[in-house]
Structures are given as structure tokens and as C-alpha cells.
């Protein structure tokens, strides 16, 4: 893969500035290389969601273009970058834990650069903590000025060891046409919008990612066409709430209209999207999905809880009946669709009756899978100061009760597909057995089948022989 594959044709002033900084950074990296007598290595570690993963591909693209080589081993790296997430406290704690280890590396390798970016850096308390407890960090930047990475990296080479911190509160800029190093040759995420306007009361994302901004459809389509020319057959359209895509553009367009246009791109085989907020999912979208040859038979539709009073307290803007009716409409139009969800347990005030409501909803929908999270208090969000915060024991018991039902339901849903023949996109050689490859079905289920690396990136028909709970053993037919 060529790290220099530029993403789109937009040649804005800012892009030209940053490309010039990439050239300058290349000079700095060349000097470092001469000093070390080998190419310096960069390790980029991503926490959090698919949007962060996509951002990391851009950061790595810049580093590789400037002359770093990629490594996955932090101990071997001359630059370590953590692209952080702050959606739950355990994500923050993991970063602090790892920073403690880096302190030792930095002592034995003074030229090592430690770079922190992403959602955690948008929180002042995190930045302050890093300033006082991890002062060896070279560079901190946030989510809004990520496009300035090359420029800020140049500053670290001029700074002779001082920490550089640049975090913006917001931006209206979308600077997208810089180098990218994709993780997978055959599939890619594509940002269609940034930020979130929903302010669910537990959630930090609107504070760290700012207000909703949609990319122009022609830029998205252009990027996808380029990706397809470069061998991509599956795209995942990314946004915190893709269903409200386009409403704030000068020429508003709906997400469903965008999908219709993406569908027309020759050579593109599969389209996925993430995440759909139930309050904005339109009948137009259901119709487009139902007619589509390319949109995968999977929708991730986070419900969070089955309790009406908690949905209200969470500011989710729908009721359980609304959600159940929506699921019915989706299943009537697209019977073979898989529906997955996110659930938060232990939101302030959650009672065992609320947990029963959630369990009842899970059973009624029969989710194909669900991500279950313990509520994590995020400073600055309305829920953090609500009464009725649960004890760790209550939280755990609510979580365990829901997880049990989620697993039962997911197993039952998967088992129904035994014996079916489906197309699988082969993604990797299996970690556990190099005689097996792993493929993903349109409905997002995974299947392991005999094969080798030459199959990666191809779509093959597979019979689902044995259900192993959440995945299948299969055979190519
Ligand atoms: N925009 C997406 C979700 C992004 S965050 C949506 O609304 O669907 C991914 C998931 O993290 C959320 O769906 C929610 O289940 C979980 N989450 C967010 N904030 C959380 C918190 N404070 N504690 C626990 N889970 C949280
Ligand atoms: Fe967070 Fe709600 Fe926005 Fe999703 S829709 S990112 S849960 S505020
Ligand atoms: Fe985490 Fe930021 Fe994504 S908080 S979930 S990385 S938008």
C-alpha cells in the first residue's frame, strides 16, 4: 500500500500548508535517521471508536510519508503516539497506565518522541494531569486540530525537549486530503461527518468532538472512488449519528440520498455505516437499504436501555415503543437484516424494574449482538451530577443480568443461520490456526474456513457448517 495515496481533490490553502510541513518534517526525520544510522520507527496505538481508527490511519500516513517506518512494538519505537478515547473512564486509565511504562523507555532513549492526541486531550483535567505527572510527553493536540499534525511534529523537533500543547475548543475546518496509511487493503472507513449535537446526558463525545459537521457529498464520493481504484471493495461510512448526515450542508441532502449515490460507484461491493441513532432513522433510509444490492444486511442501532424513564433521563429522544416499532419496520422491509445494539447498565437511578425492562426489550428484539457497558461517570456531563449513582455492586449485578440475556439471544440468533450459504469477505488468516481464514458475512457474523492468505480481500460463497456461539466454522463451496 502506498502511504502517499492522497484522499481527495480538495486543494485548500490549509492542505498546501500542511503538505509543506510534511516536507519539512521529512528533513527532520532524515537528520534523525542519519544520527541513528537506521530509519526511525513509529508506533501508533488507537483507543476508542472507528472514527479514531480512521484518524490514526491519517496520522500514520503522515509519519510514513515523512520517513518513519511502522512498528507495532512500543519498545522498538522512536516515536509512540496514543490516539486516545474518553468515552469511559477505563479508557483513560489505560492510557495513564501505559504512560507510566513509557517514562522508562524515554530515559533509555532520549530521542524517543511521545505524542498524545484524541478525545482525552480535549479534557482540560487530562491535559493538566499529563503536564504534572508525565512531563516527558513531547506533544499534545486535540481532535479539532488533528490536521496540523505535521506542523506540530516539526515544532517538536525545534522544541528541544519542551512539551508542546495545542488543543482547540472547536473548528469549522475539514482538512481531509493528506496522506493516509490504510490498515486493510480491501476495506476502509470513510468519515462522512464529525461531531455530535445530541448531548445524551451520559456522553462526553459532544464535548470532545464538537458540533456536527457534514462533509460535502461530492468529496465523500470522490474519496470512495479513489479508494475503489486503489483496491477497496467495502466502505464503512462513519459518523456519530449518520442518520442526521447532510442536514446542515448549504445544499442539504439526506443520508439515504448519499447512500443512493455511493451505491452507484462501480467496483464497490459492500457498504456499511455506523452509527444510526434511532430517533433519526427514516423510512427513506429503510427503503434504500431494502432495495440495495450493496448495503450490508446489518444495522447497529444503539438503544442504551429498555426503560422509558431512563431513556428520558438519558435524553435519547425516543421511547421503547418507538424503538420496537422501528425494529418492526426494519425487519418487515429487510427480513434477513441483523440488528445489533449498545446497552448501558447502571445509569443513575436504574432500578431492578428498569433492568427487567431492558431484558424484556432485548428478548423482544432478539438482538444479533450487543455491546454492553457499565455506566461510567464523565465529568462535565449532566448525568455525572444526577442523584441515584449506583454502587459498584449494584452496577455489577445489573450488568451481569443483562449480559447473560444478551449472550443467550446472540447465540440463538447466530444458530438460526446454520447450514446457510452466504458470501463472506475474507479478511485475515486466523490468529489461532494458519490453515484457516476469517471471513465476514454481510450480516457481520464471522466465519472461519480452510484457506490461505491469497484469499484475503475476495468475496467467496461459504456454507455455515457449525455454529460456535457467536461465529461459525464453514467451508467454501
Ligand atoms: N454515537 C453513537 C455512540 C458513540 S459512543 C450512538 O449514539 O449510538 C459508543 C457507545 O458508548 C454508546 O452507544 C454508549 O452505549 C457507550 N457510552 C457512551 N458514554 C458512556 C458512558 N458515560 N458510560 C458507559 N457507556 C457509555
Ligand atoms: Fe454520545 Fe449520544 Fe452523541 Fe452518541 S448520539 S455520540 S451517545 S451524545
Ligand atoms: Fe472515544 Fe472519542 Fe470515539 S471519546 S468513542 S474515540 S469519538
Q: Mind explaining what this structure looks like?
A:
The chain has 477 residues and is α/β, with parallel strands linked by helices. The protein has three domains: 164 residues, Rossmann fold, CATH 3.40.50; 229 residues, pyruvate-formate lyase- activating enzyme; 56 residues, Beta Barrel (OB fold (Dihydrolipoamide Acetyltransferase, E2P)). The protein has 13 helices and 19 strands. The strands form five sheets. Strands 2-1-3-4-5-6 form a six-stranded parallel beta sheet, sandwiched between helices. A hairpin with a 6-residue loop joins strand 15 and strand 16. The longest helix is centred in the first third of the chain and has 24 residues. The protein is globular, with a radius of gyration of 23 Å. The protein starts with 12 loop residues before the first helix and ends with a strand. The N terminus is likely disordered. It binds S-adenosyl-L-homocysteine, iron/sulfur cluster (SF4) and FE3-S4 cluster. The site of iron/sulfur cluster (SF4) has 10 residues, from helix 6.
**Overall pLDDT level:** 95
Distance between the termini: 30 Å
**What share of the residues lie within helices?**
25-40%
Tally of individual domains: 3
CATH homology-level superfamily of the largest domain: tm_1862 like domain
For this structure, the quaternary state is: single chain
Strand runs, count: 19
- Determine and state the CATH class of the largest domain: Alpha Beta
Shape: globular
Spans where pLDDT lies below 50 across 5 or more residues: 1-9
Spatially, the strands of the biggest sheet line up as: 2-1-3-4-5-6
Amino acid at each position: 500500500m502506498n502511504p502517499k495515496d492522497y484522499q481527495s481533490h480538495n486543494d485548500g490553502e490549509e492542505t498546501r500548508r500542511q503538505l509543506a510541513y510534511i516536507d519539512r518534517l521529512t528533513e527532520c526525520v532524515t537528520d534523525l535517521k542519519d544520527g541513528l544510522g537506521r530509519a526511525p520507527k513509529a508506533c501508533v496505538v488507537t483507543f476508542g471508536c472507528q472514527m479514531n481508527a480512521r484518524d490514526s490511519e491519517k496520522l500514520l500516513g503522515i509519519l510514513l510519508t515523512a520517513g518513519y517506518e511502522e512498528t507495532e512494538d512500543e519498545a522498538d519505537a522512536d516515536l509512540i503516539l496514543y490516539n486516545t478515547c474518553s468515552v469511559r473512564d477505563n479508557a483513560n486509565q489505560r492510557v495513564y497506565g501505559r504512560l507510566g511504562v513509557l517514562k522508562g523507555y524515554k530515559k533509555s532513549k532520549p530521542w524517543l518522541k511521545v505524542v498524545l492526541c484524541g478525545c482525552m486531550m480535549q479534557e482540560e483535567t487530562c491535559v493538566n494531569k499529563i503536564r504534572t505527572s508525565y512531563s516527558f510527553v513531547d506533544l499534545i493536540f486535540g481532535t479539532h486540530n488533528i490536521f496540523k499534525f505535521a506542523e506540530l511534529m516539526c515544532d517538536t523537533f525545534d522544541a528541544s525537549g519542551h512539551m508542546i500543547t495545542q488543543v482547540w475548543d472547536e473548528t469549522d475546518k475539514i482538512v481531509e486530503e493528506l496522506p493516509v496509511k490504510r490498515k486493510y487493503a480491501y476495506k476502509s472507513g470513510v468519515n462522512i461527518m464529525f461531531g455530535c449535537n445530541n448531548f445524551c446526558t451520559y456522553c462526553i463525545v459532544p464535548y470532545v468532538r464538537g458540533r456536527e459537521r457534514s462533509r460535502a457529498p461530492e468529496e465523500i464520493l470522490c474519496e470512495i472512488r479513489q479508494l475503489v481504484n486503489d483496491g477497496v471493495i467495502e466502505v464503512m461510512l462513519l459518523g456519530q449519528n449518520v442518520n442526521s448526515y447532510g442536514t446542515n450542508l448549504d445544499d442539504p441532502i439526506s443520508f439515504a440520498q448519499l447512500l443512493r449515490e455511493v451505491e452507484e460507484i462501480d467496483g464497490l461491493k459492500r457498504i456499511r455505516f455506523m452509527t444510526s441513532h434511532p430517533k433519526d432513522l427514516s423510512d427513506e433510509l429503510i427503503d434504500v437499504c431494502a432495495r440495495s444490492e450493496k448495503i450490508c444486511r446489518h444495522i447497529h442501532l444503539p438503544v442504551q436501555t429498555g426503560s422509558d424513564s431512563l431513556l428520558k433521563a438519558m435524553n435519547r429522544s425516543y421511547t421503547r415503543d418507538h424503538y420496537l416499532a422501528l425494529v418492526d419496520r426494519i425487519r418487515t422491509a429487510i427480513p434477513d437484516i441483523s440488528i445489533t445494539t449498545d446497552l448501558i447498565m447502571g445509569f443513575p437511578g436504574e432500578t431492578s424494574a428498569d433492568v427487567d425492562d431492558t431484558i424484556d426489550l432485548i428478548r423482544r428484539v432478539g438482538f444479533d449482538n450487543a455491546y454492553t457497558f457499565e455506566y461510567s461517570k464523565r465529568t462535565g456531563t449532566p448525568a455525572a451530577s444526577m442523584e441515584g449513582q449506583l454502587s459498584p455492586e449494584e452496577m455489577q449485578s445489573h450488568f451481569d443480568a443483562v449480559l447473560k440475556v444478551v449472550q443467550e439471544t446472540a447465540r440463538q440468533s447466530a444458530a438460526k443461520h446454520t447450514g446457510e450459504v452466504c458470501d463472506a469477505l475474507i479478511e485475515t488468516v486466523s490468529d489461532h490456526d494458519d490453515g484457516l481464514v476469517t471471513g465476514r458475512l454481510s450480516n457481520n457474523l464471522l466465519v472461519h474456513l480452510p484457506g490461505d492468505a491469497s484469499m484475503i480481500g475476495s468475496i467467496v460463497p461459504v456454507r455455515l457448517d457449525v455454529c460456535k456461539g457467536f461465529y461459525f466454522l464453514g467451508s467454501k463451496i
